[in-house]
Write a structure and sequence with these properties.
Length: 750
């Protein structure tokens, strides 16, 4: 039980926090917000903090009883601030009219939706986009998603997800930017800019949402929704940087997360939401909870009951309650009793109203409800071109030992094997709740657009039944009856394209795996086909890093295509036939075995990193420490040569780096030059390598380019165990090259 004096101190701290971090809108907007708030009752203010999911056909009969009826009444009473999972101009207009015309003050609604990698025209999954290291393309991809979503009435997306993760067992790695905070930060900003554009009041821009704040990607054992218990150094140096970058980049909303962080649920976490996000970083948008994450604080053992949920969540800085019903049912009594100060409510409501003003919703609540835009923009051909470009840039050539790629366009007999080769759903990936099924260009369709010398045999089913966004895919673990004809086809073909990997819904939320091998009977199919023909091009289609040591050892060519969205097959065909030279680099380490996980490049040294003849060093008895494919790895159809690395310290915390890169091959290509440093001695040990700069550029055969990088305090410093950013003099190592394990090395002293 909190003693009164402590409680009073706590409330005072919250008041200070609200005052310090209360948003600083423009004077005119501030005046409008003030004016509106003076008119609002406490119930109406609390209503703005209430986010409901729509679960009735809005254009259908009005719900007469149950939760849907309550929601309908609350909409009319002005007790709802936003809706989620409502889309389509007609549906949105219906609800907006209800809120604006029926409620006393007519405050317009936000309409939030998970526009994660596209609305109808689907881009590659975010992890694939991260593999492009092409920030402009990533921004453009989010721009296209925003244009289509805004045309469907949506003005707020629950994206970008920016959870750093090192654990491929976690199904949501498909949704993020990989394992590195520097790359993850750059991608987060690019996606926020794509969604929000330069003018949030424009009809084709929508509010973005940095999620999940924070630490969700460090769920223990890679099991979704599991406990997160990490040190301050990991929190500040690995987890928080993308969120800080997104806040500095102007993201308007932040979503907290399901997990506890070091024993405190994120939704009730004052350190995260008030101390760091709002006070230290000055975030002036609003925080929304994740789906019922408020109520889950009871299950966590942090809240006594729903009233306590509302008290803890509101006081800790969770401004809007998604589907817990805790605020709408309990906040008024909590304010009346003094357990939640009205200043907490006012701060939250200001933040929410500010975003609505910025979106232009008070000027025109129906601006996103134009049926002509919806008809003209959804599936627009320009959007197909944009996602095709993004898809081509997202692929990673892992291996091409015997140069089977690019395929010759001369006539040759090409066998195409694998259920995923003819699958028009899985390439769409997970987190596509607005998309239309079976709308991806399949690999087979893409290849047939190049040549009719293609023969397709499935070989084996991947799943035994189709599945949906809400359920897992039942995997075929036993039926090998199709192997025979696949092997026969392979034996009489010049080259075999095998498309293997995961079903589109084998990754994503709630889809953690304890194994990272090829699901079902695919590995056996691969080995059976290999016996008949070793000229195999393995095309991987998956939502997470996979452990494929046999393939890495035996298959001459491996192309990682992830799940590339609507234009998947066309993009893959263009790469296979060399019309696009693959340029992607891994944003996440591929393990040799799941036993190595979590495995990541920016690890600490340990005190015993080096092999000795005795067992007393950091290793496994049954597996190498090294990854199968390292962070930053990716080949090309050409080769790049690095030379003339120069490193010059030009200030107390400023280093100029130069390197020359030459295209030493026969075809034009794009390269991602990566800059890694190591702070060799620090008050808190630093990783053996940290990405601190990169550039993606293209070179013609024989062409050279000198690249320049500048490292400043921001790149050279780190957060200590008190969360303080420091930079310390001393020796640094540096490596500039084509991956996290290959490049020119040097050192400098600050
Ligand atoms: C989900 C996800 C979150 C999503 C929200 C609304 O459970 O965790 O990322 O935005 O609910 O769909």
């Amino acid at each position: 039980m909190i003693r009164n004096s402590t409680f009073r101190l706590w409330t005072m701290l919250i008041l200070i926090s609200c005052a310090c971090s209360s948003p600083k809108p423009s004077n005119e907007m501030n005046a409008k917000i003030n004016d509106l708030m003076t008119q609002m009752t406490l119930e109406e203010k609390i209503g703005q903090m209430n986010l409901y999911n729509g679960f009735w056909e809005v254009t259908g009969p009005v719900p007469q009883e149950g939760a849907a009826a309550d929601k309908y009444q609350h909409l009319k009473q002005g007790y709802v601030g936003a809706m989620l999972n409502i889309h389509g101009v007609e549906n949105v207009r219906q609800l907006q009219e209800l809120a604006v015309n029926e409620s006393r003050l007519g405050i317009p609604l936000l309409f939030g939706y998970d526009v994660i990698h596209g609305y109808k025209t689907l881009a590659p999954i975010p992890l694939a986009e991260a593999a492009s290291w092409d920030l402009e393309a990533i921004q453009q991809s989010a721009r296209v998603a925003a244009i289509e979503a805004s045309a469907a009435g949506i003005n707020w997306t629950f994206a970008p997800m920016m959870d750093i993760s090192r654990d491929a067992r976690w199904g949501r790695v498909m949704e993020g930017g990989g394992e590195d905070p520097y790359l993850g930060s750059k991608i987060a900003v690019a996606r926020v800019r794509g969604f929000q554009g330069d003018d949030l009041s424009a009809v084709n821009t929508i509010a973005a949402c940095a999620k999940h704040f924070a630490g969700y990607g460090f769920a223990e054992a890679g099991r979704d929704y599991n406990t997160v218990d990490i040190g301050t150094s990991t929190l500040y140096n690995m987890v928080l940087p993308p969120f800080k970058a997104a806040v500095d980049g102007g993201v308007r909303t932040v979503m907290n997360s399901f997990n506890v962080l070091n024993g405190i649920p994120a939704t009730g976490n004052t350190l995260l939401q008030r101390d760091i996000l709002k006070r230290s970083w000055g975030f002036d948008g609003f925080v929304v909870s994740d789906w019922a994450s408020g109520n889950e604080m009871i299950t966590h053992g942090f809240a006594r009951d729903y009233s306590h949920v509302a008290e803890l969540a509101a006081n800790s800085g969770s401004d809007m309650d998604m589907e817990s019903y805790a605020y709408v049912k309990h906040l008024k009594a909590l304010v009346d009793s003094g357990k939640v100060d009205i200043s907490v409510i006012d701060d939250a409501v200001r933040r929410i109203l500010k975003v609505k003003f910025e979106l232009g919703l008070f000027d025109d609540p129906y601006k996103y409800c134009d049926p002509d835009r919806e008809k003209d923009l959804i599936y627009h051909e320009d959007h197909q071109k944009a996602v095709l470009d993004m898809a081509k840039k997202s692929m990673v050539l892992l291996k091409n030992e015997t140069k089977l790629l690019p395929l010759s366009k001369e006539q040759q007999k090409i066998a195409v094997i694998g259920a995923l080769a003819n699958d028009k759903n899985s390439p769409l990936g997970s987190w596509r709740i607005s998309s239309d099924d079976n709308t991806a260009v399949s690999v087979l369709e893409g290849l047939l657009s190049y040549t009719d010398q293609v023969t397709y045999i499935k070989g084996a089913e991947l799943v035994t039944a189709e599945t949906t966004f809400r359920h897992e895919a039942p995997i075929n673990e036993i039926d090998k009856s199709g192997f025979g004809e696949a092997v026969t086809l392979a034996g009489k073909s010049d080259v075999v394209v095998m498309v293997l990997g995961e079903h589109g819904f084998q990754s994503g939320e709630g889809r953690s795996r304890t194994r990272l091998d090829l699901p079902g009977v695919q590995q056996e199919l691969l080995e059976a086909v290999y016996e008949a023909n070793q000229n195999i091009i393995l095309v991987l289609m998956n939502g997470r890093p996979l452990a494929i040591p046999w393939a890495a050892e035996n298959i001459p060519t491996i192309l990682e295509t992830w799940q590339l969205g609507s234009q998947s097959g066309n993009a893959i065909a263009q790469v296979l036939f060399g019309d696009y030279n693959p340029s992607g680099k891994l944003p996440m380490t591929f393990p040799r075995s799941v036993g190595q996980v979590p495995i990541f490049y920016n690890h600490f040294s340990t005190g015993r990193p080096d092999a000795t003849e005795m067992v007393f060093w950091s290793h496994y008895m049954d597996e190498s420490n090294s990854p199968l494919y390292p962070f930053g790895h990716g080949l090309s159809y050409t080769t790049f040569n690095y030379s003339d690395l120069t490193v010059e310290v030009t200030g107390s915390a400023e280093v100029d780096v130069q390197v020359a890169v030459t295209n030493s091959g026969q075809v034009a290509g794009e390269e991602v030059a990566q800059v890694y440093i190591r702070d060799v001695v620090a008050s808190v040990v630093r990783p053996v390598k940290e990405l601190k700069a990169f550039k993606k550029f293209s070179l013609d055969p024989g062409q050279s380019q000198t690249l320049e990088f500048k490292l400043t305090e921001k790149e050279l410093g780190y957060y200590d165990n008190e969360g303080k950013f420091i930079i310390e003099p001393g020796k640094f190592e540096i490596m500039v090259g084509t991956s996290s394990v290959e490049g020119l090395t040097g050192e400098f002293v600050l």
